[in-house]
Design brief:
By secondary structure, the chain is mainly β. It has three helices and 17 strands. The strands form four sheets. Strands 7, 9, 10, 11, 14, 15, 16 and 17 form an eight-stranded mixed β-sheet that branches.
């Protein structure tokens, strides 16, 4: 997406930052997901070092004499926003710990970021395995279970949902058969709870006819366990969708194209934000 000329001054506010994180290998997840975790932690480390942290909040970052230690995959308590990755590298190495060799992986990342000068929209998004928001919140699914998402915001805005599964990003909302002014993002109202991907729920988006709602059934695609992530994209301003491919009615794009789309929108719209929810599907 081309950045309009009148937003160039905003792009000039970006800072070049870098971060590095090293951890012993986590044998409970795949190498691909382990690398993704380290990448996210390195980004948070860089943001915390450059812009600082919200120390008085219920923090998932701890400060010590050696600096900032990232304990969880969350950027909610740093005062900066990662906009674009320009360089990333991983390095494996062995260290001897208590007379045993231990495998470590380091991630070094460079990119562009900006200071957060105002609060992000308090977006409440929860994954569900049934449409009952009081009983079914989860991030662990079984083969064949359905996936639902509840969403609520304090202000009016525009919403879209994407899911990354290994090397592919799927566009889940707007639904696959929507067209016209509902093909890029969906208008939602403030303080109203919506349950998505359920064609028989009073909390569905009332501007979308029931016959257009896609229902989602999860599969491991023959594997024992899949590590997926859902992206909840929101802005107070209407935005254009990325360029999508269509395969048997399913809208997709590459992870690289998706991240480029996210970065470009963050450059041109300070109100554009994405919330990542990690979840698993297993046999």
């Amino acid at each position: 997406m081309a950045i309009p000329f009148f937003n160039v001054c905003q792009a000039q506010k970006l800072k070049k930052i870098s971060g590095k994180v090293t951890e012993p290998i986590n044998e409970n997840i795949s190498i691909k997901e382990f690398k993704q975790e380290l990448k996210m932690k390195a980004q948070i480390q860089a943001l915390a070092d450059e812009f600082g942290t919200l120390i008085n909040s219920n923090s998932d970052l701890t400060l010590n004499n050696q600096g900032t230690t990232v304990n969880m995959l969350s950027s909610s308590n740093v005062k900066g926003e990662w906009v674009k990755t320009t360089e990333i590298s991983f390095k494996w190495f062995l260290e001897e710990v208590e007379e045993k060799q231990k495998v470590y992986l380091s991630c070094e990342i460079k990119g562009k970021a900006r200071e957060i000068t105002k609060s992000k929209v308090d977006l409440d998004a929860q994954l569900l395995k049934c449409s009952n928001t009081n009983l079914c919140i989860t991030q662990k699914f079984k083969e064949g279970e359905s996936l639902y998402l509840s969403v609520k915001t304090p202000i009016d805005g525009y919403l879209s949902i994407f899911m990354r599964e290994e090397g592919t990003v799927y566009r889940l909302l707007p639904y696959s058969n929507l067209s016209g002014n509902q093909n890029s993002c969906i208008k939602i109202e403030a303080d109203k709870e919506y349950v998505l991907f359920d064609d028989d729920n009073e909390k569905a988006i009332n501007t979308i006819q029931k016959r257009y709602i896609d229902e989602l059934q999860l599969s491991t695609m023959g594997k024992d366990k899949l590590f997926n992530r859902l992206y909840v994209v929101f802005s107070t301003s209407k935005y254009d969708k990325p360029i999508l491919n269509t395969d048997n009615g399913i809208k997709t794009l590459s992870p690289e194209s998706f991240q480029e789309w996210i970065s470009n929108n963050k450059l041109s719209d300070e109100n554009f934000q994405d919330q990542v929810i990690y979840f698993t599907v297993e046999q």
